Hints:
The structure holds two protein chains of two kinds. By secondary structure, chain A is of the alpha/beta class. Helices cover about 45% and strands about 15% of the residues of chain A. Chain A contains 44 helices and 27 strands. In chain A, strands 4, 6, 10, 18, 20, 22 and 23 form a seven-stranded mixed beta sheet that branches. In chain A, strands 14-13-12-11-15-16-17 form a seven-stranded mixed beta sheet. In chain A, helix 1 (about 1-15) packs across helix 6, helix 2 runs parallel beside helix 6 (about 100-135) and helix 3 crosses helix 4 (about 55-70). Chain A is globular. By secondary structure, chain B is of the alpha+beta class. Chain B has four domains: about 5-100 and about 105-120 and about 395-515, Immunoglobulin-like (Sandwich), CATH 2.60.40.1670; about 130-205 and about 225-390, Rossmann fold; about 530-560 and about 565-615, Four Helix Bundle (Hemerythrin (Met), subunit A); about 620-720, Severin, CATH 3.40.20. The longest helix of chain B is centred in the C-terminal third of the chain and has 20 residues, at about 680-695. Chain B is globular. The interface of A and B includes residues 629 and 640 of A. Strand 14 of chain A pairs parallel with strand 11 (about 185-190) of chain B, so a sheet runs across the interface.
Amino acid sequence: MSVNQQAHTGPPYGQPQPGYQGYQQPAYGGQPLPGVPQSPYGAYNGPMPGYQQPVPPQGYFPSLGFPSKGCPVSLNSDTSLAPNFIGSLRAPPTSEAPPPASGVSLPSGHLAYSQFGQGDVQNGIPTSAAQMQRPPASQPFPPGSAPSPIRQTSAFQQYGPTTAGVQQLSNHMAGMTISSAAAAAPPPAGLGYGPPTSVPPVSGSFSAAGSGHYTPYTATQGPPPTSVSQDLPLAQPPFPGQPMPAQRLPAPAPGFPPPPSSYPPTTVASRPPAMPGPPLPGQTVAGPPAAQPNHVSSPPPPSAMAGPHSGPPMRGLHGPPPPTHPAQPGYQMQQNGSFGQMRGPQPNYGGGYPGTPHYGTQPGPPPPPKRLDPDSIPSPQLNELPPQQKPRHRIDPDAIPSPIQVIEDDRSNRGSEPFVTGVRGQVPPLVTTNFLVKDQGNASPRYIRCTSYNIPCTSDMAKQSQVPLAAVIKPLAALPPEETLPYLVDHGESGPVRCNRCKAYMCPFMQFIEGGRRFQCCFCSCVTEVPPHYFQHLDHTGKRVDFYDRPELSLGSYEFLATVDYCKNNKFPSPPAFIFMIDVSYNAVKSGLVRLICEELKSLLDYLPREGNMEESAIRVGFVTYNKVLHFYNVKSSLAQPQMMVVSDVADMFVPLLDGFLVNVNESRTVIASLLDQIPEMFADTRETETVFAPVIQAGLEALKAAECAGKLFIFHTSLPIAEAPGKLKNRDDKKLINTDKEKTLFQPQTSFYNNLAKDCVAQGCCVDLFLFPNQYLDVATLGVVTFQTGGSIYKYAYFQLETDQDRFLNDLRRDVQKEVGFDAVMRVRTSTGIRATDFFGAFYMSNTTDVEMAGLDCDKTITVEFKHDDKLSEDSGALLQCALLYTSCAGQRRLRIHNLSLNCCTQLADLYRNCETDTLINYLAKYAYRGVLSSPVKAVRDALISQCAQILACYRKNCASPSSAGQLILPECMKLLPVYLNCVLKSDVLQPGPEVTTDDRAYIRQLVTSMDVAETNVFFYPRLLPLTKADVDSDSLPAAIRNSEERLSKGDIYLLENGLNIFVWVGVNVQQGLIQNLFGVSSFSQISNTLSTLPVLENAFSKKVRSIVSMLQMQRSRYMKLIIVKQEDKLEMLFKHFLVEDKSLSGGASYVDFLCHMHKEIRQLLS
Amino acid sequence: MATYLEFIQQNEERDGVRFSWNVWPSSRLEATRMVVPLACLLTPLKERLDLPPVQYEPVLCSRPTCKAVLNPLCQVDFRAKLWACNFCFQRNQFPPAYAGISEVNQPAELMPQFSTIEYIVQRGPQTPLIFLYVVDTCLEEEDLQALKESLQMSLSLLPADALVGLITFGRMVQVHELSCEGISKSYVFRGTKDLTAKQIQDMLGLSRPAVPIQPGRPLQTPEQPVISSRFLQPVHKIDMNLTDLLGELQRDPWPVTQPLRSTGVALSIAVGLLEGTFPNTGARIMLFTGGPPTQGPGMVVGDELKTPIRSWHDIEKDNARFMKKATKHYEALANRTAANGHCIDIYACALDQTGLLEMKCCANLTGGHMVMGDSFNTSLFKQTFQRVFNKGFNGEFRMAFGASLDVKTSRELKIAGAIGPCISLNAKGPCVSENELGIGGTSQWKICSLDPTTTLAIYFEVVNQHNAPIPQGGRGAVQFVTQYQHSSTQKRIRVTTIARNWADAQSQLQHIEAAFDQEAAAVLMARLGVYRAESEEGPDVLRWLDRQLIRLCQKFGQYNKDDPNSFRLSESFSLYPQFMFHLRRSPFLQVFNNSPDESSYYRHHFARQDLTQSLIMIQPILYAYSFHGPPEPVLLDSSSILPDRILLMDTFFQIVIYLGETIAQWQKAGYQDMPEYENFKHLLQAPLDDAQEILQTRFPMPRYIHTEHGGSQARFLLSKVNPSQTHNNLYAWGQVSREELL
């Protein structure tokens, strides 16, 4: 697995590079440029300039960089870049692509290297730049950078451009391969491996990979090239200098852009030599054979390495390098310093290498040569790509970890068997897999998912790994019909049996002792008497005889009937109420919204949620309309006609009537119907454009208070509330704040008024659902505060138009009204002694540090809970979670829903990494980051995310992965998608808004994501892209998804993309007319209207199939997705491309490959 | 002195004016020595069958500070077409329309018999009358039902084009929009929060600027009626709607122990609503309340049942927590209302007090009615309410609105003040005295609502110095100019000009004495006393009254020193002491046995009724019916209570028929049903008929009490009569009951 990961990394780099050239240049480029000036490198340098590294890069490439870089740091950075380059090199691999994906990935890594050599240099530079940047802090760069580069370069040159390059390449390659190999090995080894691999690898690999990585590798690999070896030696001695180069190399990367032109020749030339990266080949080779996945990566690397690297870089470097040499030393020093090990390794290198072979790298060596070639070949492949790109290396996108692959694998491996929850610490199938759950003592993953099912025993371990320990809890999750709802348990008047001390509820983990007279709490170990009415004898195994008769003893999820002690004011609650509050200002009336809502409500009211098999819903309803003032309606059944009561005193809201406001739908049917008929008429001629907002919520709140019940407000609102009233807002939208320290204010509410209001709402159990229909800025960040804190949902329909948005809105409304919901809820998560729930994310309010209060909680709302150690856990007893949710059902019954989950505990980090769930992790990270933007600059949030993930991965690399080249990116199997997903999070509108993203959108998304479950975040961040034209019209199945990259789209096909909020149907320009006719009912591409909001109903197999797919997807999501038809090369395509998350985004988001390179660099930085 | 009586009576009939003195002492010094001030009771709109209004504008004196109206007392130079103002002596040219004037062709206003004349003038737009019902819904079901019926019935009594509005209140205040089809719409206000007029208008959507005006569209007022019509609609248009709406009124549904009544806010909103939409037009806010305000501004008692509403005892002990604040609230409201020319009626029906004490100013200052009853489900309320809409002999409603009374005097006189249902317009001028009696410091008053019996007491001060004698035969003149909105919405001006002779008190005291109008004087003094009682301690007022009486007797009585039996008063003074005696015992000055509300209620009516009614209030009338002769008035004395008499007592507020012991026995024995005792039947019937006659015309309906000797209700009679026979002397044989006059 690790191999795969590594492989992946490799590729990513490769890709990045390509992308990089573009990206890096911009990003890094700026800096590099200065250095760039220098000839070919100059180009590179150009980018690097700032760093001066540019020069080094050159040197770098020369391999000198590598060797010299041996200085791990530089190397790392470079390597990372290198990988990228390699990736490009991979291009060749791509040709080779054939090699298993994993293999490919590895290759890519190599390629990257090779690329480095060549364009890599550039890439490398970029990467290096990246690295450099970080290191910059380390002074060496900046100051020495200029000089150093020179030195480095010189050094590089000295090293023998070719050799150096080769070495580097080889190194990279080696590293890659090795790592891959290692990785490959590890996987099999499994846990066992972990430790050994990790340890030895570290040192060994380090020597090899780390410092050696580059140098060593180069050395090793280099050895073959002689020059390499030379370099190595040189590098080693010069190390200081070398490291520098490494750094510099990165610099070059930036410079790359320019280089391209000039580079191509030079770099290429040099790279090839570097490519010789024979080592790479070797590595790759080794990799591939060993573990295809892991190895896969290796293969590519070689190629990459081979081609570009050696040649161009070297030369280029050489040229300029000379001068740099001096500097290099300095750099190296630094690098060395940081890479202490590295150096060691380097020296060891020679040995290391040998060692490497042992791992998997060994095999690598041999192949390297070949691969190298391939790498070089890849470049040719690159040729296929746009000219510019080609020259730069490209990592084969197929070689990097593919979400699609992972999802499909999990589906085929785990989709068929039910998931039985009896075993502690079992990792459930992915959220994307359809599976059944059998509750045998642990809560279904539909209720709780954890970032890891094996928790470190100590906080030190946890800190070291940086893996967040979090659970994503969806207490009222809807279950598929095949699964049974939690049983309702009634423990009688005394209420549920609980632990005396920690108050945990009776659950399967409680230990009955003394013949069943007492039980020991599984959370706090306190011993509690079993109440007489609950006593039961134990059987010979210590189980209660009635074990299977009692859900609370045998199941992970169940409900208790709460006694009056669990009710507010010690009174059983009344059934909740729904209050519909409709904006009737000019905009709402004119757009037809008011009429639409009223019409819909007439029928919708018959479908209010009801409990079990009750004949009619216990929920009462009330109606309010408002603009600048509020109108309440008396719809008492005894009235001949409804009565409207206007409250204009919005400054001091109150409810004007008690009797007749909240009514039973059936009793007041005719009056309600009459009212709903009249509302649109009454306001048909309104000219009132101003609205209020806070008073609307207050009114609902007061109404519920007066009726002494909990409930939900459905507010349909259109505009910024500027009318004179409490909670009045002003337009404060200011895009200029983006990317400034003040950006956070855009996410913060304008006034604290709504926070206080939310608090009151929560106290009363008044949940607020908000349907927004803005035509302009209406400050979602502020309006949403109450909704958010009361556990409500926001739905936003910008520029609402009846024709196009009606279906979506009505479907959302129906679903929202009908869905199962609990009120006045309080959730507490209890845990085994040793860990503690410390942080909570979601739509709720907390008045203390432990209780999550939600005025309303529906089946879609999710709470993410983070745990921290406050003591040690034991491997034997594991860690238990008990989530208790006290709520009022829709019939007004007070209940406690209990979910229990047992997790394993580990003393070995490898166990942790083997039981992680990336989707959940991303869910947590996204929520964490989205909360972060409230208090920190977005940039800081992004950096923190990257840094945490880098630490997670670095920790794995350091402690769990088998030794391998530093140039290799090794990812834990469970987390191999972490980079791609993380990149998606980083690119999301909240963290990196494009120009077309409004402030409201960002606030909306921010709140939306915060209460998403894992499945939703998964598809939200990595949308599902389905080739419709590949769909089998005869079966029910969906076509296999493809990865979110424009490269995957064919002009001749139609694709569907969904992210949980939108569905796009993308039509290529070359789609057969027949298909177009079948699907859209028009004769040609140009006639397709992109204003369609639904697909026309046509009687043919293709149309039916597509429509059934669309409706199936609609069913899956909690919100009705807006359907948008996108024609290729049409204006809307820009919007669509935004969702192709593996590509570089217009807003500056990195492509997957680039990001992977970047991560790799980060990781290497950490490791050094 | 018959001549003087006739003169007085004639003057009253023609001008609606009764002066305390009909010959005026000619100097300030002498005037003060007369004890009873020179003052008059003016009934501005006294019904005059023989007074057709003239349809032109009055001619005014051109002097800006005078502006007196041309009247029969003016000297006219027919040739020069000039007239001289008899108040300021300014010579004025007649307007062109009077070109044809001559000795034989005089306009009405110059003819002596037209000392009172009424002009109809065309000024401003005529706006229909407005009736705004403010209805308490915190009532018992029966009461509410009865009230609803009364209100529905009243719709048919209103002028067809009158605008009508409805505000209901309980815990909240609802302003009903009346023009809605299919849905009934109301604006609701919190009952605990006072709002400014502006806020109210904003909240009711009555302030116009908010509406975006389309360019090119005139910004004219035509929109105003449209806007206000949402709450005030012509009765003929929304008759059905409103009837239904009233029919659907529910009791205030909020579950509370003591009903939460937001009377203060409801009134405030009513006032604000009219203020914003129809300032200075005739409008009645009619408040129907079934209990005291219990929340919000103007609350009179808390919502806890355990605390009873304040009593006189509490007020004396300064224990009435809410009184001052509430009074202030209602006073502010009343002043605003009065400023807008609207009036507030209070119909309070409850067994306990309803806070009239605090709310009295609303009716007092605006000329509104105040009606107090036990329940809305009584004929007292129902008929009283119906009588509000009574029509006069000419088929016109007996109500007028937005009147202003302007008083002009000749130089020797100044105006000291007025007492009645009016407010000062603060019109300073040369004829305004520095000494105030009643509402002074002005020569103009506003009377927001008045009917043909509304009577003001106006006090003057003689300012002529003793050393500047008035020429022989000189006359003092007073002109009363009352501008008002007639119930037909016409603007009218009634001008009354009177003149009296000056007399030197030293040489002609007997003339002055003879021209003393003791009835008017009694009422005028009583008004002063009651007015003082509002602000002073009861005993102080009584002492003041006593002192005045003593001084009067001293001045005009004839007696030998130290010989009480020698004391004699002339005929023109003979009844005066008796009035004062009963006044001292009246509920207007005595609070004992009356709740603060009752006192306010009595005083309210005393300050506005005409002379006859006022006298009845001061000294109830007692008629005796017996076989010994025709019905005769008898002394209001316990000695008048005889076994073989039927007594009919009219106190204005109550009509008591009391059967003497024997009569009662006869009645029980059923003699009246025996043909042979038909005369007894007639005897029994006679007082009933007479009572009925009184009941027919009296407003408000008096409480009608039919009782007999020993009956519990007999207390009403017994509390009024002069207790000449008490437990001390009733059974003392042979002792002659003594007339107690003092």
